[in-house]
Amino acid sequence: MDTSHFRRPGYWPVVWILKVPPKVKHLIWRICRGCLPTKVRLQDKGVQCPLSCVTCETHPKDLIHIFFNCYFSVQVWNRSDLWNLINHTYIQTRSTTKAIFKLSHDLTAAQAQRFTITIWSLWKHQNLKLWQNAIETIAHVVELCADK
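Now predict its structure.
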């Protein structure tokens, strides 16, 4: 049986060797496989929902916005001292998946771990705001990433 259609290009070994909780690896896998249920993706599948970001309430909630363009996310990256590296890579790749693979490969092991944990924390922040109307500060999200 041909399973080649299930394969996605990318540097997957760098994801699997990260010393992060399995839930973080699973989220990274879902992002890179294109199966994370963002509002834009849900609308593409026929689910009616508002497209605006729950944090800044302006831009469509897609992966690029959630992790690289939202004001809240940029501030979290700035406080975690990763923004310059992330922004440079993101501008070069213009793809969330490519940026994740490139950064996971290029960063030190400690930076790559902090990077992927921060992605997980940003996704969790979005969901807490959406489903529980919980408000987290930038400092709180950064602090949670440092504790992992």
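Residues 12-147 form one domain.
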